[in-house]
């Protein structure tokens, strides 16, 4: 059985204009979104994205050829290289040289010990061969 619109409106106690007017529901959703957006501080992330976007636009509008002619690109490249070297120096272990020297001494001591054991074994084998 199909009901007429007036019957549905009366049954759900809505004014006819509210059936197709979603402003109240949409406003509530917008308020909820804004509240969550601000509470989660997403606006700060959005501001960061905008700043990065502006920096990209500015860099794309910068006349690069002029920087090459003035020597600024060379200076910037040298600065980047210098910073790269400093970063790489931070990545390397501070006591790398001392550690390598220590390992070399350990290898030498182990080699001496192995050679001494080998010499003793050879002497015992010669001694046993001589006693037969």
From TrEMBL:
It comes from the Eukaryota. InterPro entries: Bloc1s5. GO terms for cellular component: BLOC-1 complex; transport vesicle. Belongs to the BLOC1S5 family. This is Biogenesis of lysosome-related organelles complex 1 subunit 5. It comes from Caenorhabditis briggsae.
């Amino acid at each position: 059985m199909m009901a007429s619109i007036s019957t549905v409106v009366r049954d759900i106690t809505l004014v006819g204009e509210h059936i197709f007017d979603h402003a109240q529901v949409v406003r509530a959703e917008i308020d909820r979104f804004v509240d969550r957006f601000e509470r989660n501080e997403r606006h700060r992330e959005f501001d960061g994205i905008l700043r990065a976007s502006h920096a990209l636009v500015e860099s794309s509008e910068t006349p690069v050829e002029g920087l090459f002619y003035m020597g600024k690109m060379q200076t910037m490249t040298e600065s980047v290289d210098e910073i790269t070297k400093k970063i790489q120096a931070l990545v390397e272990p501070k006591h790398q040289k001392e550690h390598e020297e220590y390992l070399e001494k350990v290898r030498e001591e182990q080699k001496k010990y192995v050679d001494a054991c080998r010499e003793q074994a050879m002497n015992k084998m010669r001694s046993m061969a001589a006693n037969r």
